[in-house]
């Protein structure tokens, strides 16, 4: 046994060294992964990309985008795909819908799709983390917002509000503020009257809203005092710096690890998706990012102290607004058009 | 002549004082500005607070006079003109127009027409609009404006060009328009700042006569600035020669040419041979000057003071006679021809004489011309009156 | 005399003079052409071709033609009155099945959604269910699957898809669209924004141009008339912004203009105002920041023209009796017009294309055409709309340039 194991060990070491030497020459053993940059990507680097390279020996080249689909579409249509894995957010559904992503073969992946709950029903990617859009507010405010209705009440709390320049969750929030129960929001929003009602409600605060497009921008606006409260994605720093309001926090839109159609490194990309969807890296991420792991097995591995700041705790879940992805796929085009036009008026 | 010389020495800094005496020898007092049309009184001008561009200028200009300020560039003549026009302010002194100080009168209220070096015709207006400009400013009636424009255009013989823009006219035509524009509003005084500088020689000569004719026809007072001595001699009633911010001499053209008061004027007006020497004897109107290495020359006393002082003798090339009859002239020297240039109406020769090899003589190409050849030995001579003993400058 | 000489020269070798001249000229033209060839190629490849391609996209859309070939061809015979015949329904079923298999349903749905908002979702739904539809009455079966297929307007859209060319994007860009019968009708008010956007784009550009002219003209005058040392210093201050990126400058305006920014803090500190003035995320911020960036573009052509205007013109005017202001207005100012025209045209045209500055310091109601071009390119992936808006902006700019040329004369412009 000893001799065999020694020989085997020596061979393995030699093989590893050899492969380490050859590796850089093999284009097949590296992946270009695109994510959203900033602190988020640094954390990904530390808890996902590096451990992945350590475990598999596949090198990761990182790139940054800001969610624009146009570039991906251009790559796929011209068949010059240089991205292997794309960290997609709410744009994942549209990318998939447009046929820009590979359909994921879960058998090949070796992950239990059921562990991801509803989020796992998406065909074109492996769920990463849940991130809620919540409301942060200035702690110095005399009256702090308690409900989403307070966000829409400029008499109760005067001052500018920061909102995401996107139809969701603003249309939903407008209806909730207008008295629609959370569970009925999408039912109401499916009717033309409901859409009118949402826009009417948005009209009441239109002059008091500063619209942001990047997460960092929203926090900057609040820090600068340009707004008194803002919708934003959760982050550790913001949790410390500002007051948080979880009422009707929009959740249910996890990030997805996706593979652009025509990626030249399909095998490696699958390996990465399998790794990124496994419990350990998902749990590790919560050490620095208050994002909820999509893999239910990961929750057990999360530090109990961090747990309350995550979007998918039972308390937060109880008041949350779960984003209805199919609704948005079906009605997104129409509502986005109208929202864009409404903004421009 | 003698009195002139004395005046000059009495006022060593004042080219202007000299000038006034030259024009109106009888007038004594500075404060009496009644009869001068324009009077510069003790004018000084500096731009940088250090160097004086115009030094203590005194100058009277009579009504209807054509006065030319002549001098090299940087001599202060244009600055003097600009002060009169109101575009520059004298650092010291006062300018009077018709007896009234115009110190505080802005340029547009001075009623002085001006012709600029580059004409300054407004390029975005037609010729007629250019001419109408001063009339419209003065709010004249439309009919009157039309009449005046027509008269002005006729005056400069451009009747048919009224509708054109300056850019469509030739240089000479633009010049005439500029002239017409400066005259159309019947100014008291017309200033011209090197108006013919941009024209070719033939056109320039033609325009000189034209301006002269217009001046005579209208009787308007003209102050003319040029660095071209030929132009000054052709046109002026009087010429003020400027150098280094000082009027060196002011006189009628013939006077200036025939009797330059100092070496600068002699040099600047016309061609001039200069012989450097020392006064060895004074004899009333004439003196004897020793030229080192050549002997003595009899010369006319202009502004040399005493025996023993250095002097410059000024002699016009055309006053030198070739092969004079022995004893007919006080100054006779033998010389050698260095170079001969045939110029049609006359022949120019550079000769070596009195230890100088850049001595120039001019001989009219008339009948019986002696053929000169380079290298030939000749004899030349001149009268004492043609050889003026001047203070060296 | 000259003619004789020429004839002799031309005749000596028997070649007509005209031909010789042509040869020499030809060689020179060829030489000149070789010199400019790289530039011509560059402009063609990097400018003319992409822009032509973009313009083409505004009217060209073969999504339905290529992805639903059977349906569109079956509909070419449809008279457009009642619902189409059974054949069209059969073709539709085939196309939907194929699209579902090839995952192109999303693309088709998106295209349909442009013209019939909401119908795309129903089409996707139908495509998912279409496998259950088998031979028999396709018409009844499809209408059973989704009532959409019993409506007239969806068929109208599909029929128009038979042509690879569509006026939809251009119409939409001026707030028109196709009605249920294929006629042209005004867009519903909640979507009719583009006429406003174009007017706003021209309005803001005009405002910024006027502001740069008002601010730039006196500075240009100072620059042109001050002694060289002072004017050089001033010139450095004018062109300094050129050395900083527009993005950085715009961000700097954010710091200055925000509610608790430098300007508001100073004004409140001086008790001039009691509450922060709204200077950012609105028209004020947009115009201020754009004016700042555009100032040198207006100023420099004016300056270079002023530099060539001799001071003797104003002097001449003064000597002719004009007061300082009259001389300036009647003599100096008209001569600066070629520069003013060039500077203003340059700024105006550059302003038309502004995107990043309004996006950063403007509010949603201050976004200009380029914002929507970017929005449709990047976020909505509606490249047809992006192209149409771009094409209309380009056409409007060219038209404006043409009018401007007629009024002012481009040959009189002086860029410096």
Automatic annotation (TrEMBL), chain A:
Q: Which UniProt keywords apply?
A: Periplasm, Signal
Q: Which residues form the signal peptide?
A: 1-27
InterPro entries (alphabetical): SBP (IPR006059)
| Membrane spanning residue stretches | none
Q: Does the keyword Hydrolase apply?
A: no
Which superkingdom heads the taxonomic lineage of this protein's source?
Answer: Bacteria
Q: What is this protein called?
A: Extracellular solute-binding protein
The uppermost taxa in this organism's lineage are: Bacteria, Pseudomonadati, Pseudomonadota, Alphaproteobacteria, Hyphomicrobiales
UniProtKB/TrEMBL annotation, chain C:
Does the keyword section mention Membrane? yes
Its record classes its membrane topology as: Multi-pass membrane protein
Q: What residues does the ABC transmembrane type-1 domain cover?
A: 198-404
Span-the-membrane segments of this chain are 30-49, 197-221, 233-257, 340-361, 381-404
Alphabetical GO CC annotations of the entry are: plasma membrane
GO biological process assignments: transmembrane transport
Arranged from A to Z, the UniProt key words for this protein are: Cell membrane, Membrane, Transmembrane, Transmembrane helix, Transport
Cell compartments where the protein resides: Cell membrane
Q: What is its main location?
A: membrane
In the UniProt record, the signal sequence range is: none
Q: Which PROSITE patterns match?
A: ABC_TM1
Q: Which SUPFAM superfamilies match?
A: MetI-like (SSF161098)
Similarity-based family: Belongs to the binding-protein-dependent transport system permease family. CysTW subfamily.
UniProt name for this protein: ABC transporter permease subunit
Species for this entry:
Bradyrhizobium cajani
């Amino acid at each position: 046994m000893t001799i065999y194991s020694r020989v085997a060990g020596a061979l393995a070491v030699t093989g590893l060294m050899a492969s380490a030497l050859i590796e850089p020459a093999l284009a097949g053993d590296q992946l270009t992964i695109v994510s959203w940059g900033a602190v988020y990507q640094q954390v990904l680097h530390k808890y996902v990309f590096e451990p992945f390279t350590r475990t598999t020996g596949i090198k990761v080249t990182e790139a940054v985008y800001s969610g624009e689909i146009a570039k991906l579409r251009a790559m796929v249509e011209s068949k010059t795909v240089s991205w292997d894995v794309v960290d997609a957010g709410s744009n994942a559904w549209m990318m998939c819908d447009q046929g820009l992503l590979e359909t994921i073969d879960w058998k090949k992946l070796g992950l239990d799709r059921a562990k991801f709950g509803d989020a796992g029903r998406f065909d074109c990617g492996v769920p990463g983390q849940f991130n809620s859009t919540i409301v942060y507010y200035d702690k110095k405010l005399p009256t702090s917002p308690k409900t989403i209705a307070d966000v829409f009440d400029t008499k109760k709390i005067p001052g500018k509000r920061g909102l995401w320049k996107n139809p969701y969750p603003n249309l939903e929030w407008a209806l909730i503020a207008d008295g629609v129960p959370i569970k009925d929001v999408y039912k109401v929003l499916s009717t033309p009257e409901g859409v009118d009602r949402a826009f009417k409600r948005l009209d009441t605060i239109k002059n008091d809203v500063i619209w942001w497009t990047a997460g960092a921008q929203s926090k900057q606006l609040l820090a600068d005092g340009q707004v008194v409260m803002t919708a934003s994605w959760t982050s550790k720093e913001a949790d410390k710096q500002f007051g948080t309001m979880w009422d009707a926090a929009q959740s249910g839109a996890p990030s997805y690890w996706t593979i652009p159609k025509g990626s030249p490194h399909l095998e490696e990309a699958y390996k990465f998706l399998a790794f990124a969807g496994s419990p350990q890296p998902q749990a590790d991420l919560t050490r620095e990012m208050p994002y909820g792991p999509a893999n239910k097995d990961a929750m057990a591995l999360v530090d109990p102290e961090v747990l309350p700041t995550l979007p998918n705790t039972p308390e937060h879940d109880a008041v949350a607004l779960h984003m209805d992805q199919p609704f948005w796929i079906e009605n997104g085009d129409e509502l986005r058009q109208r929202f864009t036009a409404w903004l421009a008026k | 002549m003698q009195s002139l010389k004395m005046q000059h020495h009495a006022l060593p800094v004042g080219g202007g004082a000299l000038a006034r005496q030259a024009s109106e020898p009888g007038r004594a007092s500075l404060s009496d500005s009644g009869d001068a049309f324009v009077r510069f009184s003790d004018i000084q001008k500096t731009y940088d607070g250090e160097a004086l561009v115009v030094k203590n200028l005194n100058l009277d200009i009579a009504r209807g006079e054509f006065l030319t300020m002549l001098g090299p560039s940087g001599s202060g003549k244009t600055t003097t003109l600009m002060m009169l026009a109101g575009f520059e302010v004298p650092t010291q002194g006062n300018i009077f127009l018709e007896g009234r100080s115009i110190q505080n009168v802005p340029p547009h209220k001075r009623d002085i027409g001006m012709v600029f070096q580059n004409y300054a015709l407004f390029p975005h207006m037609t010729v007629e609009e250019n001419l109408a400009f001063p009339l419209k400013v003065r709010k004249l009636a439309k009919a009157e404006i039309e009449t005046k424009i027509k008269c002005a255009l006729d005056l400069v013989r451009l009747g048919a060009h009224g509708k054109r823009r300056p850019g469509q006219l030739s240089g000479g035509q633009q010049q005439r328009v500029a002239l017409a524009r400066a005259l159309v509003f019947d100014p008291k005084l017309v200033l011209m700042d090197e108006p013919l500088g941009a024209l070719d020689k033939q056109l320039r000569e033609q325009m000189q006569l034209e301006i002269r004719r217009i001046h005579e026809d209208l009787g308007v007072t003209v102050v003319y600035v040029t660095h071209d001595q030929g132009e000054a001699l052709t046109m002026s009633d009087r010429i003020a020669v400027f150098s280094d911010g000082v009027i060196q001499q002011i006189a009628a053209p013939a006077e200036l040419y025939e009797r330059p008061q100092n070496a600068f004027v002699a040099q600047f007006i016309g061609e001039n041979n200069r012989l450097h020497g020392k006064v060895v004897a004074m004899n009333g109107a004439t003196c004897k000057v020793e030229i080192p290495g050549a002997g003595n020359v009899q010369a006319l006393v202009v502004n040399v003071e005493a025996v023993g002082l250095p002097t410059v003798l000024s002699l016009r090339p055309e006053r030198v006679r070739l092969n004079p009859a022995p004893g007919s002239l006080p100054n006779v020297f033998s010389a050698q021809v260095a170079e001969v240039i045939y110029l049609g109406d006359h022949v120019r020769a550079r000769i070596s004489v009195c230890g100088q090899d850049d001595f120039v003589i001019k001989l009219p190409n008339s009948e019986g011309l002696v053929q000169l050849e380079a290298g030939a030995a000749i004899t030349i001579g001149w009268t004492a009156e043609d050889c003026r003993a001047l203070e060296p400058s | 005399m000259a003619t004789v000489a020429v004839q002799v020269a031309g005749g000596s070798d028997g070649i007509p003079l005209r031909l010789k001249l042509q040869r020499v000229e030809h060689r020179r033209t060829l030489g000149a052409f070789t010199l400019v060839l790289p530039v011509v190629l560059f402009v063609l490849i990097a400018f003319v071709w992409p822009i032509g391609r973009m313009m083409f996209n505004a009217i060209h859309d073969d999504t339905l033609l290529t992805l639903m070939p059977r349906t569109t061809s079956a509909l070419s015979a449809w008279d457009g009155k009642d619902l189409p015949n059974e054949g069209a329904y059969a073709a539709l079923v085939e196309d939907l099945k194929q699209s579902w298999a090839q995952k192109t349903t999303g693309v088709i749905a998106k295209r349909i959604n442009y013209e019939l908002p909401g119908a795309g979702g129903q089409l996707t739904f139908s495509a998912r269910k279409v496998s259950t539809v088998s031979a028999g009455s396709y018409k009844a079966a499809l209408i059973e699957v989704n009532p959409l297929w019993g409506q007239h307007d969806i068929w109208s859209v599909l029929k128009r898809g038979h042509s690879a060319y569509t006026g939809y994007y251009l119409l939409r860009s001026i707030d028109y669209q196709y009605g249920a019968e294929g006629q042209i009708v005004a867009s519903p008010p909640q979507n009719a924004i583009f006429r406003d956007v174009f007017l706003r784009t021209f309005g803001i550009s005009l405002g910024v141009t006027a502001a740069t002219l008002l601010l730039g003209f006196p500075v240009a005058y100072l620059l042109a008339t001050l002694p060289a040392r002072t004017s050089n210093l001033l010139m450095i201050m004018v062109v300094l912004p050129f050395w900083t990126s527009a993005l950085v400058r715009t961000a700097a305006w954010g710091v200055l203009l925000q509610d608790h920014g430098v300007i508001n803090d100073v004004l409140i500190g001086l008790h001039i105002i009691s509450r922060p003035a709204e200077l950012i995320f609105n028209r004020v911020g947009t115009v201020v920041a754009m004016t700042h960036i555009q100032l040198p573009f207006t100023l420099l052509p004016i300056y270079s023209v002023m530099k060539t205007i001799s001071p003797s013109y104003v002097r001449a005017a003064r000597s002719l009796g004009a007061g300082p202001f009259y001389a300036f207005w009647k003599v100096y100012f008209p001569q600066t017009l070629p520069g003013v025209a060039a500077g203003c045209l340059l700024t105006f045209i550059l302003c038309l294309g502004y995107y990043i500055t309004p996006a950063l310091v403007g509010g949603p109601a201050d976004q200009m055409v380029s914002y929507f071009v970017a929005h449709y390119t990047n976020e909505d992936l509606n490249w047809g709309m992006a192209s149409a808006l771009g094409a209309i902006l380009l056409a409007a700019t060219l038209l404006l340039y043409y009018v401007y040329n007629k009024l002012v004369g481009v040959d009189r412009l002086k860029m410096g």
